[in-house]
Write a structure and sequence with these properties.
two-stranded antiparallel sheet, 4 strands, Methane Monooxygenase Hydroxylase, Chain G, domain 1, Actin-binding Protein, T-fimbrin, domain 1, mainly alpha, 751 residues
Length: 751
Amino acid sequence: MSGPASPHGAGGEPDWLRLQKKIFGRYVQQKLREGGIKKEINDLVKQLDDGVMLIELVQCLSGKDFGKKPIAAKLRIQQIENINQALKFATAAGIDVKKVHVSAEDIVDHKENQVLALIFQIIIRYLKFEEDEEGKQLDVRDALTLWLNNKTAGHGGFKITDFTHSFHNGMAFLALIHKMRPNLVNYDALVAEDKVTNLELALTLAEKYLGIEKYVTSADILKLNEISMIVYLSDWYHGIFLLQKQDIAARRIGKLVIVTELHDKMRADYLAQSSALLAWLKAKIDTLNKHQFDDTMAGIKHLLEAFYAYKKNEKVAQINAQQDASALFNNLALRLSKHKRPAFKPPAGQSPHELDAKFEELEESEAKRSVALYAELARQVHLQKVDKRFRAANTRLLEWVNEKKTYANRTEKIDSVEEGEEALDLHGLYEGELGHMRTANVKDLDTLGEELLKERYELSGEVKKIMGDIKHTFEALAHQASAKGKAITDALAAQRALNDKLCRAFADSMKSWSEWLKGKKSHLTASASQALDVQLADVVKQLGDTGEAQSKLHDLEGHDQKVQARGLVNNPHTNITLGDARSQWEQYLQLLQKKKSLLEEQLEESKRQGLTKEQMQEIDDNFNFFDKDKNGRLTRPELKICLQSLGEESTPKDIAAILAEYDPKKNGYVLKDDFTRFMFKILGDSDTEEELVKSFKYLSYDKEFVLKEELSNVVNGKTFKDHHVNYLLKEMKHKDAGYDFLTWNHEAFAR
């Protein structure tokens, strides 16, 4: 702009009057619109003469109800009556009408000075900029000056001293914008002397980002008188307040991003863990169900070693993985419930309950595998015993002739089932051989003897005697063998009964152990619904009190030693060994230790009220940053700056309310612990879907899509970061010229 400003606008109307009517008219039109009344204000002074608009304006600003409004009148006397009612209503609403000495006749007669003075009086009644340190409302000029200087502090070292010249170079307007949105203005590059350029930039940015209509030009700014500038600056106050609301909205959106991103990651992690677990379970159950062996003792021993190594190592690792997955699922469930999100439903087969059932199926397969392994081991042991007896029988056959006389007179010593079975087998062989001698050799002898007698051998008497003696001898041997066989059979039955008694005693002790351990596990599962601290106390108690378990294991060891002393390798009453019991206890202790760690983590997170470790670090960083004098406390000014950095309103009344809650002793500062509690309240709240839609609409200026720059402009590096913007741009779908936040927001709350 060149040359001095003209004191008159088009048509000879003074500039101050033209601009004041325009600014006041715009203010009235805006407030009526906010109250749901759409009216186009072309000439405010003339449009007030029926009294109705004045009533509507006071109603919208004060929130008071006039009642039945008068009908808009054209007759002067009726107009005066309407306006008198309106002035009376304005006075009742707290507006000092007498101060401006305006009458109903002045308004009907369109006296501009009086009408505009009344409107200004109404405006300043409801203009709120700032309060003093005691929370008292300041004079509108003082309040506006204080607010402006606070908002432009640190920009060029200037101060607002008036409501005309202080704004003519545009630097004050641009300082207001730069203070809130540094990315929009390169303030250090501005030249104060370039007034028109600065003002045009300020008006353009204000229209685009502060919601301030461009109803005055840069030339008009230079012509505004103090009254008009005060009213015009009220638009800037509300525009800056809009940016503050955007900061609050961005913080809420940033929190939603953090929560949604974390929940999505927890779901993905759980699905990956449960999927891997399910695949392992299916493969392992399939392997365990294959009972194919190589018919060798070395092969079955190798399979048994591998089976116990699997239970001690591989299975324990998978149980730990199951506990990790279960804890992750429970933690996610707690978070989803806390944030009022739908429960997470994993695919079929991957819920913790279904995985537990699959582990039970695994244990059934293990039991069958154990039975099959020990059955094969018993078969191999039996085959070795048969081989031993075969070789022993061969030797005995070779020694038969020399041993048969002494064997029949010997009493066998039997102290075990194996010894009894071996004696019985030996006796059976002896009886068989004896029978063979009788049916073969003795018969041959008798045949030869009968032939000699038939032939009338001269020594027939002697022959008869020999045959009689042989017959008597073998009959005696047969009787003696029968008695000896019964004695061996009785001794064998006694040894088998003793073995069965020892095996059954071990099995009963093992059953007691298994039921006790199952009860412990059931208790652990059932207690999952109790408070975290109660669960932790129970787990710690169990870890510290293992005496009952050691007593039961000691009892098992005693029974096992008796069984092992008898050389028994297969217990027909149980397939669970002492090694299994020890492994089960170690697994349970690991389970307890794992749950203890998980409960401690969950308790720590509970103390953080849902905040992440990163947010806790952010709280600590915030405190250290705003604690300028490093004395471990935030003073009133430091707390105010902190609030502003969080996008919160920070009037003295707000500060006083915070200090009243967190500084009950009226020390004038907030300690770190109290500051942490305050930050929990600020950062830890849970927003609703509707609130987040409102937050997005603050950023999008009420559009149903948001632009990339509208997200980037509110990045502050603390509560809303580049990471949040990048995440949203990646996750949201395109819509029109921007991104569809409505769909993404709904989907985020639906999962």
